[in-house]
């Protein structure tokens, strides 16, 4: 393989904030980066060596982009997998591999993978019609998820009782038994081509109930060591079973009985790992690069307590972004603001994140709550 720090050309499918932060790390390794994204104002547009505007779902666009690089990676799963398969056949390295992206694009296949490999997950049923939904043996309440194209809480619907069926999705979907959970937890695992595997310490997450996406994350977890070890072992087992090269985010529930259930996978850097930039010896973005370049994986140990908060566009505001209160939060020691370069805000759009570092866990949480109340994205 060409030297990643010299003549290797890395292509990124997707030019959003994940790609932006990946590029920020790749610059330290002198990596040549090309980016494909449909939005000419995408966050990556000014950071990469070459930015190409084009559809991620169009075969010819993805194929032609891939032919001009030596290696492809993704920052979003919604890409044309047929083009990636052909590029692999022609010698372009694609990490994560196209077969893994294909699996994770379909939540039904993802659940079947869990079942076939004894990965603990909630009881589920794949649904192809409204009639099948009505006849399901899974009791109310349950969660209905579109098999494809759901993200950041979209494509998810809670069916509380029979009256909710009229609002259910009619597209191919799956339903899951409602999990009465104690905590939402997550583990990010990395694996390189040599088979070296490392996990980041387990984190605890709080979700915005209205937007249904991660709003508040605490690292490291203070849950019992046995729970943390089991979660990390599950993530390692999934990575090894998939033979993935790259990063894999494993989202899980800890139910009221202390049982861990895997919810979903994301084969890329993930919102649940942003705190690693300041909070861990190696960040998730550096680890992803090390994995796909088949380099030794870095030390994932926590340096301090780290709280991550998503900066979301405020409800009722749409237009040029104004970061109200940013001067106040920047006065706080241990507060790190990351803005994603998005000119326009809209309700619940991810505009950035803030990481709060403090050796005192309670002080870190206190400062995080202050940031939540103070920093608002309006227009």
Which characteristics define this entry?
single chain; 379 residues; alpha+beta; Rossmann fold; Dna Ligase, domain 1; D-amino Acid Aminotransferase, Chain A, domain 1; 26% helix; globular
Shape, per Cα inertia axes: globular
According to CATH, the fold-level topology of the largest domain is: D-amino Acid Aminotransferase, Chain A, domain 1
Whole-number total of structural domains: 3
Helix and strand content put the structural class at: alpha+beta
Walk me through this protein's architecture.
The chain has 379 residues and is α+β, with helices and mostly antiparallel strands. It has 3 domains: 9-94, Rossmann fold (3-Layer(aba) Sandwich); 123-177, Dna Ligase, domain 1, CATH 3.30.1490; 181-378, D-amino Acid Aminotransferase, Chain A, domain 1 (2-Layer Sandwich), CATH 3.30.470.20. The chain contains 11 helices and 22 strands. It has helices spanning 17-26, 59-66, 81-89, 98-105, 107-116, 130-134, 225-242, 276-279, 284-292, 326-330, 361-374, and strands at 9-13, 32-37, 50-53, 71-74, 93-94, 124-127, 142-146, 156-159, 173-177, 181-191, 197-199, 203-208, 213-219, 246-255, 260-266, 305-312, 319-320, 322-324, 335-339, 344-345, 350-358, 376-378. α3 (81-89) links the parallel β4 and β5. α1 (17-26) packs across α9 and α3 runs antiparallel to α4 (98-105). The protein is globular, with a radius of gyration of 20 Å.
């Amino acid at each position: 393989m060409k030297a990643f720090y010299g003549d290797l050309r890395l292509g990124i499918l997707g030019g959003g904030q994940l790609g932006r932060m990946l590029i920020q790390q790749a610059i330290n390794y002198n990596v040549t980066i090309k980016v494909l994204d449909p939005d000419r104002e995408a966050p990556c547009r000014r950071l990469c060596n070459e930015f190409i505007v084009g559809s991620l779902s169009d075969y010819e666009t993805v194929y032609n982009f891939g032919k001009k690089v030596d290696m492809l990676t993704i920052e979003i799963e919604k890409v044309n997998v047929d083009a990636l398969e052909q590029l692999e056949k022609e010698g372009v390295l694609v990490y994560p591999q196209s077969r893994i992206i294909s699996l994770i694009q379909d939540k039904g296949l993802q659940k079947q993978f869990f079942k076939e490999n004894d990965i603990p997950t909630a009881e589920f049923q794949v649904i192809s019609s409204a009639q099948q939904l009505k006849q399901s043996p899974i009791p109310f309440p349950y969660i209905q998820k579109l098999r494809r194209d759901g993200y950041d809480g979209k494509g998810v619907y809670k069916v509380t009782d029979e009256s909710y069926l009229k609002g259910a999705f009619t597209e191919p979907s799956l339903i899951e038994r409602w999990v009465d959970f104690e905590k939402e937890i997550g583990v990010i695992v990395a694996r390189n081509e040599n088979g070296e595997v490392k996990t980041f310490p387990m984190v605890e997450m709080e979700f915005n109930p209205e937007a249904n996406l991660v709003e508040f994350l605490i690292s490291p977890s203070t849950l019992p060591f046995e729970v943390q070890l089991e979660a990390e072992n599950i993530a390692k087992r999934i990575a090894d079973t998939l033979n993935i090269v790259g990063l894999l985010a494993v989202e899980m529930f800890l139910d009221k009985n202390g049982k861990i259930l895997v919810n979903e996978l994301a084969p890329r850097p993930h919102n649940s790992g942003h705190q690693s930039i300041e909070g861990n010896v190696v960040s998730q973005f550096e680890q992803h690069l090390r994995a796909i370049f088949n380099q030794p994986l870095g030390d994932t140990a926590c340096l301090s307590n780290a709280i991550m908060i998503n900066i979301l566009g405020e409800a009722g505001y749409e237009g040029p972004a104004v970061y109200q209160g940013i001067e106040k939060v920047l006065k706080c020691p241990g507060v790190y603001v990351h803005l994603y370069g998005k000119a326009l805000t809209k309700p619940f759009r991810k505009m950035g994140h803030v990481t709060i570092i403090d050796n005192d866990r309670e002080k870190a949480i206190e400062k995080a709550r202050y940031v939540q109340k103070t920093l608002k994205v309006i227009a």
